[in-house]
Amino acid sequence: MGVNVHSGTANAGHYWSYINTNRGVDEKKDDTTWIKTEADIWNEYNDSRVSDWEFKELEQRTFGNAPKSNNNGYFSALGDSYGTSAYMLFYERRQKKDLKIIVPEDKIEEQKAKGINVQYDEEKKENFKMCPYRSAADGELANEIYMKVAEDNMKYTFESDIYSTEFFDFIL
Hints:
This protein has helices at residues 58-62, 108-113, 144-162, 165-171; strands spanning 2-8, 13-20, 42-46, 49-53, 84-90, 99-102, 119-121, 126-131. It is of the alpha+beta class. The chain folds into three domains: 2-90, no CATH class; 99-135, no CATH class; 142-172. The longest helix is centred in the C-terminal third of the chain and has 19 residues, at 144-162. It is flat, with a radius of gyration of 23 Å. The model is unreliable at 71-80 (pLDDT under 50).
């Protein structure tokens, strides 16, 4: 389960998430304490920082708390002058289902050599394997789209750094 939060206006602001990171790890089908989300471990994911977060702060942090005054009238770096509001709530299936992972044609023999059952869907004309939810990504490599996005992000970061005045001040 997770909550995405926004601070700011429709034109400018900041987003971050509160995520329950342990959901489903040790759950049992007839566990009556499962609904007690507040007992689980939660984290705040805010840009490059991940920190512990207490579920008891949910209402205070996400229910459209009152804006704080801002003397200069401009949007502050943290968005304090506009308050915060949850804008999206994610739910997670309690009983996990196996995931269907597409196997490229050139990887079929490799998968079979590892003892993995590769099936063929005649209707969709694709090879696939079924994997347990918690281990579905184990051993999988990033796909081409992910690799391209990561490459573009690294290039952007590099260019932002070398053309920044802080970079030149540091070098000189």
